[in-house]
C-alpha cells in the first residue's frame, strides 16, 4: 500500500504540466495572430502613403508643366484611401539652353505622411523625380 500512496500525486503533476504547456501555446498563438493583423495593416498604410506621395507628384507636375510654377507647398488630402495624409512638396527649378531652346527641369521632392512621428500609426513615403519642360 505504501507504493500506491507514493504514486497518487503523479497524475496531478502531469496534469498541471500539461495545462502550463497548453496555456503557453495559446499565448503564442494569440500573439502571432495579433502580429499578423498588425503586419497586414502596416502594409496597407504603406501602400496608402505611396499613393498619397504619387498624388503629390502628379499635382506638382501639373503645376510645373502647365504654369511653370515651382514653389514649395503642403497638401492635406481628404478623399478616398489617402484621406488624412499630409503631402509636403518641395521643388527646385533649373534652366539651361540647348541649341536655340531653353529647357527647364523641375526637381520634385514629395513626402507623404500620416500619424505622429514615433507613434505606432506613423507612416511616411518619399518620392523624388525630375520633370523636363
Query: Measured on Cα atoms, how large is the radius of gyration?
Result: 29 Å
Encode the helix/strand succession as letters.
HHEEEE
Q: Briefly note the structural class of the backbone.
A: alpha+beta
Query: So what's the oligomer here?
Result: single chain
Strand content: 25-35%
DSSP helical segment count: 2
Structure in words:
By secondary structure, this protein is an alpha+beta fold. Helix content is 48%, strand content 31%. The chain has two helices and four strands, in the order H-H-E-E-E-E. Strands 1-2-3-4 form a four-stranded antiparallel beta sheet. A hairpin with a 2-residue loop joins strand 2 and strand 3. The model has no long low-confidence stretch (mean pLDDT 88).
List strands and helices in order, with pairings.
Blueprint: H1 2-7, H2 10-67, E1 73-76, E2 86-98, E3 101-114, E4 123-132
Antiparallel strand pairs: 1-2, 2-3, 3-4
Task: Offer a concise description of the structure.
It contains two helices and four strands; from the N terminus they run ααββββ. It is an alpha+beta fold.
Write a concise keyword list for the protein shown above.
4-stranded antiparallel beta sheet, 4 strands, alpha+beta
